[in-house]
Amino acid sequence: MSSTRISARMRRIKPSPSSAAADRFAELRRQGKDIINLAIGEPDFDTPAHIRQAAGAAIERGETRYTPVAGTLALRQAIAAKLQRENGLDYAPRDIIVTCGAKHALFNALSVTVEAGHEVIVPAPFWVSYPDMVLACDGTPVIVACREEDDFRLTPQALEAAITPATRWLVFNSPTNPTGTTYTTAQLRALADVLLRHPQVMVLADDIYEHIRFGDAPKPQHVLVIEPALRERTLVVNGVSKTYAMTGWRIGYAAGPADIIAAMDMLQSQSTSGASSVSQAAAVTALNTEAGFLPGWVATYEQRRDTAVRLLNQIPGLRCAAPGGAFYLYPWCGGLIGRRTPQGKVIESDVDAVIYLLEAGGVMLLAGTAYGVAPYFRMSIATGVEQIEEGCRRIAQAVAQLA
Ligand SMILES: Cc1ncc(COP(=O)(O)O)c(C=O)c1O
C-alpha cells in the first residue's frame, strides 16, 4: 500500500501506547500467558447500578434516536448544575457541548483552534494523547519537562519560559495522568499570574481526575474561580469516564467561550453528530445523583497507592513518591539502567526495563519515555490490591536477577 495515500498529518502521529498495551495484553492472554496488567487506564469498578438502570429505562422510553449535536438539554443542564455545585463555575447549557468522551472534546477543541505554526504547551510527564493530538491538528507541541523534585508540577518560571507569541494553548491536567500531581490554590494562582501577562494563551483545563484525590489537602479552587479573567480564554474539559467508572459509555464535555463551543458544534455536526443517546441519559443520572460510592472508591485507590508505594520503594533501583491523586504511580527506574539481564542484554532505557519486566516478570507497565520524562514507568493502581502485590513481587524478583 502506498504510504502517500495517508495524509502527512496522520503520518506525523503514532498510536496511543496505552491502547497498544491493552491490545498486547489481550494478545498475551490469548496465548495463555500469565500477565499482571498494571497498564490499565480506567477504574476497575463497575458503573454503579442506578446509572446502568437509567440507561435501560432510556432505551425502554425510546430515547434511541439522534440527539442535538451538542447533547440533550437535560444533560447540558446536569453538566451546568455540576459545574456550579462542584466547581463554583457559572455556565449555561448553551455554553456546553457534550462529546464522545473527554478525549473527543480535547481533540475537537484543538481541531477548531490550532493551525500550522501554532504552539501548544504540554507539561511533561503528559497524558500520551496530547502531543499527538496537537500534531494531528498541524500544530507544534512544546513539551515542558517538569521535575521530580517539584513533584512534577509545572512551575510559573517554566511556563513563562515556554510562552512565545505563537503559543495558542496551555494544556493543563490535574490531578495529572501519569504522575498524580495536584496543585494548591496558591500554586494555581501563580500560574494564573503568568497567563494574565500573555493574553494570546488559552487554557485547555482537563479536569477528568478532579475527584480522585488523596489525603487531607483541601481540593483547590478551580483556576477560573481563582482568576475569573481567564474565563474568555479557557475551555473546561471533563467527563464521566473516571469519576463514575463509565469509560465505555463515551461521554465527555467542554464548557467555554461561545465561539469555541459553536465551532466544536459545527465540527461535530459534520463528523460524529451527538454522543450516544443512551449514554447521555445514563450520564444525566450520574451527574444528578449524589455519588455516595465515590469516597469508598477513592479510599480504595488510596490504600492501593500506599501498598504499591511501600513495595516499590523496597526494590533496589526504583524510587516512588506517593501521588496526590488520579490512579497511577510514576516510579523512577534509573537504578536499572546499565544493568544486564540473565540473557546478557543491557537495559539502556525505561523502554528496555518495561520490556524486561514484561518478558521476565510477567508484569505489564508503560515506559515513561512515552509520557515525555525518562527513566520512569507508569504503574496503574486501578486494579485489585492482590494484583498490585503480586505485580510488585514479580518486579522485585525480576530486578533481583539483573547483574
Ligand atoms: C488526562 C486524561 N484526559 C482525558 C482522558 C480521556 O477520557 P475519556 O475516556 O472520557 O475520553 C483520559 C483517559 O485516559 C486521561 O487520562
UniProtKB/TrEMBL annotation:
It is an enzyme of class 2 (transferase). Keywords: Aminotransferase, Pyridoxal phosphate, Transferase. Its cofactor is pyridoxal 5'-phosphate. SUPFAM superfamilies: PLP-dependent transferases (SSF53383). It comes from the Bacteria. Residues 1-21 are annotated as: Disordered. Gene3D superfamilies: Aspartate Aminotransferase, domain 1, Type I PLP-dependent aspartate aminotransferase-like (Major domain). Residues 33-395 form the Aminotransferase class I/classII large domain. GO terms for molecular function: L-aspartate:2-oxoglutarate aminotransferase activity. InterPro entries: Aminotransferase_I/II_large, AspAT/PAT-like, NHTrfase_class1_PyrdxlP-BS, PyrdxlP-dep_Trfase, PyrdxlP-dep_Trfase_major, PyrdxlP-dep_Trfase_small. Its EC number is 2.6.1.-. The keyword Protein biosynthesis does not apply. Pfam families: Aminotran_1_2 (PF00155). NCBIfam families: PRK06107.1. Belongs to the class-I pyridoxal-phosphate-dependent aminotransferase family. This is Aminotransferase.
